[in-house]
Write a structure and sequence with these properties.
Blueprint (H helix, E strand, L loop, with lengths): L29 E4 L8 H5 L1 H4 L1 H11 L3 E3 L8 E3 L6 H9 L5 H21 L15 E4 L19 H4 L1 H28 L4 H22 L14
Helix pairs in contact: 3-5, 7-8
């Protein structure tokens, strides 16, 4: 582990902002989507499964892990890397009690991008997903200081995936309900131009629940156990 970042000099305060605190007893991960109180585009809604393809391909190049395409010894090579960072933060928290800020920034912005594409595919917004602007989708994650002593338990990342198993089970059924809700909403938008508010809140709630579990068990930015609820 000698190649890991060295700790700050003695007596020098840790770099980076202090950790975020939830306040009001709210969960430290927040997610919301602005309800489109207007007529949605029926044409792009009807063909959403096709219009999402270009941005989904782009997302796959940065969020789908690593791949390598080679063609012989001197042939062309294509390499792409990406995905949410898990192993690196886990090792740094475990051995150095550190979480580099730029790793947090990468995970946050990539997760925001994933959510914008997911919201578009779920028909919650008819504006084409931006690669950098938040648009109608707001996702906020707690900010962990560079040094994590007293902020994150250094041993908990080893078992978070196990502790989150009840959430995986519940989310499995919630996602089935989400698919059904989106199909019903698709017909509703084609007929009325509106996304039924009850279905909208349910779909947003499932995505919110999913983001909380990701923040807890995958990108490791909080030790607060995710609540079993759809509401904020």
């Amino acid at each position: 582990m000698s190649t890991f970042d060295a700790p700050p000099p003695a007596g020098q305060p840790p770099a980076g902002p202090p950790p975020s605190s939830p306040g009001d007893g709210a969960y430290p991960v927040s997610f919301a989507v602005d309800y489109p109180d207007r007529a949605l585009n029926r044409l792009t809604t009807a063909f959403r499964i096709f219009t999402v393809i270009p941005i989904a391909v782009l997302l796959g190049t940065v969020g789908g892990g690593s791949f390598h395409v080679g063609r012989g010894e001197n042939g062309a090579t294509i390499v792409a890397a990406g995905g949410l960072l898990f192993a690196g933060p886990l090792l740094m928290i475990l051995f150095r009690q550190k979480y580099p800020l730029w790793w947090q920034d990468w995970n946050r912005e990539l997760l925001r991008f994933m959510n914008r594409v997911g919201v578009y595919l779920a028909l919650l917004d008819d504006r084409y997903p931006s690669t950098d602007e938040q648009q109608a989708v707001r996702l906020e994650l707690p900010r962990v200081g560079v040094r994590t002593e007293g902020q994150l338990n250094r041993w908990l990342p080893l078992v978070k995936w196990l502790l989150a198993i009840p959430h995986y089970i519940v989310l499995f059924f919630l996602w089935i309900g989400l698919v059904i809700a989106v199909i019903v909403a698709w017909f509703a938008i084609l007929l009325t131009g509106r996304y039924p508010r009850g279905l909208f809140d349910y779909v947003v709630g499932v995505i919110r629940w999913h983001n909380r579990v990701v923040a807890y068990a995958l990108i490791l930015v909080t030790d607060a156990y995710p609540p079993f609820r759809l509401a904020p």
